[in-house]
Structure formats: structure tokens, C-alpha cells
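explain this.
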Amino acid sequence: MRDRRPGARLRSLMRGDCVALGMIVRMTRARGIARIAKMSGHDFLFIDTQHAPFSRESIADLIVAAEGVDIPALVRVRGSDDPDITLHLDVGAAGVILPNINSGEEAAHAVSLCRLPPDGRRSSAKPTAPGGDDDPLVVCMIETTTGVANADAIAAVPGVDLLHIGCVDLRVAMGVDPDVRPFEFAQAILQTAHAATSRGKLWGLGGERDQAQRAKCIANGARFMTTNTDEALLLSAATAAVASDRARY
């Protein structure tokens, strides 16, 4: 029987050696974005509450819309102490993406908010929230040199599913020009990837727009990646359409 829990389905997809691609949602509050993500071949929605002012109701609408077209919705929360983590999971989010995790202790605290007893301290909303996922995906973002140094300890935490490298912020933390990829940055990715795989966990990255480097990371085992934001994807398509028409006259 097909597992109805979106977090478990997404985890199974990646464990089956498939690369899960996500659309970052920041600009739109329209439920139709879930259908667009599905039709364009994305595997999950990445609802970004860290960098966009979503209301709780808007987030819930997007999660329910995603469930309606059978695409998992993950929520990047504001931090490992975000009080809305449980709310998002109760509505049916496939999991949460935790920004800027720098230690095993921070990861363990976040896991405790996501897991039901005896594995955590999340309160059960059943039967009032039948869409709630009791096996959510827990994604820890590595975005600083401290996070890279402690990647093994973070990956070792029971309940952490995946280490996700935030390339933009990690480059900033390392003082690296965004247009270059020096040896030190490549080593940071490899160190994080090794920490995840050695602990039997998944890994991925976002913010890397160089297709050759993305392909290299996939070859090295990355199974969780974002394509771009809804705003950037719309701008790219609109710009190409206008350029095509302008070229005709």
C-alpha cells in the first residue's frame, strides 16, 4: 500500500537514488503554485518563511494545496526554536527545513519539536488534524564554518534525515566571492557530504546555480536540491518570452 505520509514518500524517493528537486516559494500566496510545481516536474515545495512574510494561514493553504496535487510541501522555518514548527506539521507539511544549525545540540532540540513521544516532545493534534505527518522529514541547513566543523555531530543526531548546504550563506560566512568556487569551499561541501553519508543520512544543497557544479554534487551523492525561487523562475520565463517577441520586430 502506498504510504500516505508525504515526508515518508519524499524520504523513500531519495533513498531510491532519485534526486528530489524543490521549488522555493517566496513571492506567491496562490494555491496554484503547487500545481505549477507539480506540472513542471518538481518533487517538493520549499515554502520559505525565513525570507518571506507568510501568514500562518497562507502557509496552511499552500500545504493543503500541495497535498491536493500530491506534491510534498516542506517549510523552512525561522529557526530551530520557531514556535510554529508543530503547527506546520499538524496541517500536513512533509517536514521542516531548519536554517543555520551549528551543533548537535541545536539539531537535537529541533528534532524534539518535530517528533512525537517517545522520540520527541511534539504534541499530537489527532484527530483534529488528520493531515498531520507523524514521520516528517527533518532537514538541517549547514550555512557557516561552525556548522561544517560540527556536521558529523549534527548528522549523528537520531531523527535528523538530511544535511542541506546553504551555498549562498556559507560562501558569505567563508568570505568567498559568489562567482568563484575555491578549494576551501569545495572542501566544505565534501566534508559536509561525508559527514552525512558516513552516518547514513542524506545530503543536498541549494543556492548553487552553476550547472556543472550541481551535476558534480549529484555524482557525489546529493539527493536534495532546489532549482530556484518562484520569483526567479517567473522572471526568467517572462524575460525569455519578451526577448523572443522583441526579436520578431
About this structure: Residues 6-143+151-241 form a domain with the TIM Barrel fold (CATH 3.20.20.60).
